[in-house]
Design brief:
By secondary structure, this protein is α/β, with parallel strands linked by helices. It is built from ten helices and eight strands. It folds into two domains: 90 residues, no CATH class; 204 residues, 3-Layer(aba) Sandwich (Aminopeptidase). The longest helix is centred in the N-terminal third of the chain and has 34 residues. This is Stage II sporulation protein P.
């Protein structure tokens, strides 16, 4: 009688274990499919641009290595396929956004560097990284080879025990590395968004809504005068595209301000606030189109 009960308990235990493993893997496969959807990726981007990319593959490997190595014939094929999908997603979280570079652009020798010092800034339904990515794509399509910084500012700050107000230390680190790796770089664009209300950050022109731009020049750097000159040129060009789309240029320095904003690197370092926290994806993208056209005109005029 005891042996019979013991066997019965073992069978129940095996059944429970099998059910647990089955639902664990089913949930995992379902998560991977969700991760492939644009909606979830957009939500992830609002929290941190690259943190998922840095940690997803490693976390998944640690959690399912034992399951993959075990001979679970019924589910083994699905698990391996799901694992390969996660590795692919880890390689680039923006896979669905990428397009083929035009043939006339030398992507190995970019002349434009685009980055976000405050990489986790978001809009109503968009992020500054999304805006920077779109700008890069448009500039490449226009024949101006551009490089977008994808490394995480947050990870750099956390790794080095720095606070959010040290963000320019992080962006300067990546900017210097980019210059070292690509000596061809000449123009640098730091894309931000402001915290002002929507009535201040938005304009309607010819029936289309735009997120207004604001240029920032630091006064605590050796290139102060030159940065003012180049920023003013770009500002005038963008105003000629859409009247009143620009809120102008502000000059920051002294106590309470960074005052440099990486602009000591070159007179061609631009800090641009695109819209505010309440602007929509459509409004920001409309402005990026205008900004792209202004940059193309500016650079081709300089060249």
């Amino acid at each position: 009688m005891k042996k019979f009960k013991s066997k019965k308990k073992r069978k129940k235990l095996k059944l429970k274990l099998f059910i647990f493993v089955f639902f664990f893997i089913f949930s995992y496969v379902f998560m991977v499919k969700l991760l492939s959807s644009n909606k979830l990726k957009d939500n992830i981007l609002k929290d941190d641009v690259n943190y998922v990319r840095f940690n997803l593959s490693k976390t998944v490997e640690n959690q399912i290595t034992k399951l993959i190595n075990n001979p679970i014939n019924l589910l083994n094929k699905n698990v391996k396929n799901a694992f390969n999908n996660v590795k692919t997603a880890s390689k680039t979280i923006y896979e669905n956004k990428e397009v083929k570079e035009p043939l006339n652009v030398d992507i190995n020798n970019p002349i434009i560097y685009i980055y976000n010092t405050h990489q986790t800034e978001t809009y109503a339904d968009y992020s500054v990284y999304d805006a920077a990515y779109l700008l890069k794509e448009k500039l490449n399509q226009a024949g101006l080879s551009s490089y977008l910084e994808e490394q995480s500012m947050k990870v750099f700050l956390d790794t080095n025990g720095l606070k959010y107000y040290n963000s320019y230390t992080a962006s300067r680190n990546y900017l210097d590395l980019a210059k070292k790796n690509y000596s061809s770089l000449k123009y640098f664009f730091d894309i931000h968004r402001d915290s002002v209300s929507k009535d201040i950050s938005t304009i309607t022109y010819n029936g289309k809504s735009y997120a207004k731009v604001l240029f920032v020049v630091g006064t605590d750097n050796p290139n102060n005068a030159l940065n003012k000159e180049t920023t003013n040129k770009l500002n005038e060009i963008i105003k000629s595209k859409v009247p009143n789309i620009s809120r102008g240029i502000v000059y920051h320095g002294g106590k309470g301000f960074n005052g440099v904003y990486n602009q000591d690197v070159s007179s061609e370092v631009f800090l641009i606030e695109v819209g505010g926290k309440d602007n929509t994806k459509e409004e920001v993208e409309n402005t990026i189109e205008v900004l792209n056209n202004a940059i193309v005109e500016y650079i081709k005029g300089v060249i």
